[in-house]
Design a protein that fits this description.
The structure is a single chain. This protein is mostly helical. The chain folds into two domains: 1-36; 43-126, Orthogonal Bundle (Cytochrome Bc1 Complex, Chain D, domain 2), CATH 1.10.760.10. It is 53% helix and 0% strand. It has helices spanning 2-35, 48-60, 95-104, 116-126. α2 crosses α4. The chain starts with a helix and ends with a helix. Bound molecules: heme C. Heme C (HEC) binds next to α3.
Amino acid sequence: MDIVKTLGLYHRGKMRFRWMFCCVSVVVFIVAGCRRLPPSKPSSEWTPQEARGAEVFEENCARCHYPTTTEGKQGPGLQAITKVKALPSGAPPTDERLTDTILHGRGMMPATALDDDQLRDLLAYLHTL
Ligand code: HEC
């Protein structure tokens, strides 16, 4: 009788341990998932517009921003800049907000003069990051 009871407790303890392990795994998974940014679109899959936007970026933004990491250069890295919840400043990463930042500058970032086509191409490119 006693041995059955002991085994029962042991089994329950093991189940509890497994349950806890499960919970911890789920939490770790969620935290890790939040930190990982969605992948950038590979350049081999760019549309012509996105490729033109990449050139606009090279000419006007690349000296201050890395496109494929969030590491800072002169300004913050722009990986996944349209997919994050908020820009480094805390503003939502909408096209309007990005356009405003690009055309008017912000803090130490100078304004960039782009025509409508260049701006549209650049925004399309920023969405691939
Ligand atoms: C001379 C360097 C420089 C150039 C060129 C430059 N930036 Fe910036 N950028 C910065 C700095 C510095 C900041 C941080 C500004 C701040 O929040 O004070 C910044 C911030 C930003 C932000 C984040 C804004 C926010 O609300 O947090 C975006 C997006 C951005 N730049 C995009 C661009 C794009 C696109 C271009 C090209 C058209 C560009 N930048 C050109 C220096 C630059």
